[in-house]
Amino acid sequence: MDLKTHYLGLELKHPIVASASPISQQFDGIRRLEDSGAAAIVMFSLFEEQIRFEAESHDFFDHTSSNSFAESLSFFPNMDDFEAGPDEYLDLIRRAKRSVEIPIIASLNACTPDGWSEYALKLQQAGADAIELNPYFIPSYTQSSMDVEKQYEDMVAAVRRAVVIPISVKLPPYFSSMGYTAKRLVDAGANGLVLFNRLYQPDFDMERQDVRPSLELSHSGEIRLPLLWIANLYGNINGSLAGTTGVHRGHDVAKYILAGADVAMTTSSLLKNGTGHLAVLMAEFVEWANRHGYRSVEQMKGSMSKKHVLNPAAFDRANYVKVLQSYLPKHLVG
Ligand SMILES: Cc1cc2nc3c(=O)[nH]c(=O)nc-3n(C[C@H](O)[C@H](O)[C@H](O)COP(=O)(O)O)c2cc1C
After folding, report:
1. Is the CB of 267 under 6 A from ligand 1?
2. What's 204's domain CATH number?
3. What confidence score (pLDDT) does residue 182 get?
4. Number of structural domains, the chain?
């Protein structure tokens, strides 16, 4: 089977990509991901707060000005707790590019329109093959949905002006009109979209009555929302698609490709099972594809998208109504 795929204009030897995770925080982890068979690596994110902290520290020492950003940083982890500051991040990319063959996609996580451009250029100069933007902010009460979408577009446009390498945007699933927003982001200069970002959802500690930060690894069932949207977007936007949540088994990879993704990304399965799990994903994916007569990833792509599936209504409201009507609680059956 021909496993080649194209993502953001990059040719990849197969469609399984390591998404942003702590594994890439160290050079050894990057090496391990390549040795274990990842087709490309999305680096862990560099946060806007880290970049601004460094810039303001320099400013402070150079001009002894006040540090207006300090207050918000009191909620942020101690800068010493990060594996890599902005300079170390660039060094890691340079080192990775010298030593590994597979594409290295840098990741920038920012919350303001001006938090991106300068650093995006530095990432390009360090040799990154592409940049994944992860805009993350909770909209304020004064922002309309149009304001929020405009903020995303402005972020993408600013980075597009700054760099020539491909850029992708890791999106949250909560836009009022996902298809329209996706098109606008591609028009603003994104070469691809990554569906979806898993948003931070704190829990309550009921004994201490405190808000508890909690990060749980995903499970395969979480694939369904990004799958729905990849199947919808396939053939309707002029850019690449990546599925990024819930890939734990080979058939999860197959699902994303059938829906229309160019690549399937994984983090939780690697944190849970180790990077050796990439070989399991690949073997299971190839076994499934061979058993179902596919000769290439390109042939598989989108064959179960809304454009190509026999029953496109299965993605729509009609099916939603049917599914709700057909559900019978177990205690009512027989
Ligand atoms: C411990 C951990 C760290 C992560 N760090 C980042 C990060 O730095 N940047 C980012 O964009 N996503 C980050 N993610 C999100 C993953 O890249 C991925 O999108 C998400 O976990 C969903 O994929 P999965 O189901 O394969 O885990 C992280 C996830 C985990 C579990």
Report:
1. yes
2. 3.20.20.70
3. 97
4. 1
